Amino acid sequence: MSGKIKSNVPVLLFVVLLAAIWEAGTSLFDVPHYIIPKLSDVFVSMWDNRQLLGKHAVTTLWEALLGLGISTVAGTLAAVWIDRSSLAKKTIYPLIVGSQTIPIIVLSPIMVMWFGYEIWSKIAVVILFTFFSIAVNTADGFRSADPDIGALMKTMGAGKRDLLLKWKIPSALPGFFTGLKMAAAFSVGGATLGEWLGGESGLGVYTKRASNMLRADAVFSGVLLLSAMGILLFLAALWLEKAVLSYRRS
What we know:
Blueprint: H1 2-28, H2 39-48, H3 50-84, H4 86-99, H5 104-115, H6 119-143, H7 147-155, H8 160-197, H9 203-212, H10 216-249
């Protein structure tokens, strides 16, 4: 435990240094509060509006988790399909990759038109942000499976089920978790964008309303919460990766 704490000391010191520069820099250079507020003012705003922020944060987190969950299932199934079907590999895989050439912010209003201003439009935007990384990284993980191991298992009488569960899936796990970590960080941004385009609650709505009122302290407090939420989801995916892969190695 002490070793982990020591390894995190540089990160903590860097964060403290950035916070000190922010707090001192705004006073030293006399930056207007409606452009960049003092960090202390941001924390004061966060405390004063803690109940409202908590309510909006729960909404955003719920949207991010639902969208991420759907993307995880759909992306994994798509990767399995791409790996097991040469037709899907030639058609679906290029389509998924090609879909990323279209800016997601352009597709987001379409999701609102299709699903309205309810929660599903936000979840749809989250899926747009997260599906690609999970599907492509998992598909690449399947493709990286050692063919010699597969050939050996076949000579030993392994069936398709055994090949999938004992060869393909273990080989794809590192790629899957790479995609999951990326998607976990992106999910919060997707939920926020969906809320900006149309919604009644969520941190995206909170920061948009605060921006319209030129309340930079409230905007930055919402942004800090969104950043913390994305980091926590990333760390949760990282913890899951370590737990699963360490169990596999054992």
